[in-house]
Specification:
7 helices; six-stranded mixed β-sheet; globular; 20% strand
């Protein structure tokens, strides 16, 4: 008798997806923890980010279909608020909040494009906003300055982290270059407002 065995890569994606949705882990951290939890070796093949996003959407559809759309809406509204506050730096939204699979545990990722990278920091200081400077990874794996702040989201009755990735102005030209799935990797304030006016849970394309 033939016994069907689940694809271990799919199993890892399913376990990691729960951690992404329920704990707010990023894909890389969730995959590492899933492998450890499942007792697999460090050289085990892991799902790529496309498979991870599919698993996350599946998990949300099964377990969070009633709550996730409103959580996504609240995060997009919060993102737009900060995009308006930082409008002089041509902000673009990316990540889970842009692509439509964010839950209340997800952070907001905004990309700023500045003539002088220090301008974004000066703007936060002028508004007396506390932030933590650090580094993130850009689209081409290059290091990017990141400014992380905490903001209150009243709709979710909790604090949310906002990561501001600061790019040179010249980088704006490639900001909307399609990703591996042929989607826009990020959107400006006009695009976010369009999502907010669309049916709840609308996914960016």
């Amino acid at each position: 008798m033939n016994v069907h065995r689940a694809d271990p890569v799919e199993e890892i994606a399913a376990v990691a997806a729960r951690m992404v949705v329920e704990e707010g882990l990023d894909f890389a951290a969730a995959k590492r923890r899933a492998i450890k939890q499942m007792g697999l070796g460090v050289r085990t093949a892991m799902p790529d980010n496309t498979a991870m996003e599919a698993a996350v959407r599946e998990y949300i559809g099964v377990f969070c279909s009633e709550t996730q759309p409103q959580e996504l809406l609240a995060l997009r509204q919060t993102a737009l608020l900060w995009m308006e506050r930082m409008s002089r730096f041509r902000p673009h939204l990316s990540g889970a909040v842009w692509h439509g699979w964010a839950t209340r545990h997800c952070d907001i990722h905004l990309h700023l494009y500045c003539d002088d990278p220090k301008e974004a920091e000066w703007a936060l200081l002028d508004h007396r906003v506390d932030y933590h400077p650090g580094l993130s990874t850009g689209r081409d794996r290059e290091p990017v300055q990141a400014l992380t702040l905490r903001t209150r989201c009243d709709a979710l009755a909790q604090w949310v982290l906002v990561h501001l990735m600061v790019h040179d102005l010249d980088d704006l030209r490639g900001a909307l270059r399609p990703d591996a799935e042929g989607r826009k990797p990020r959107g400006d304030a006009v695009a976010v407002r369009s999502l907010l006016s669309a049916p709840s849970g609308e996914v960016a394309s």
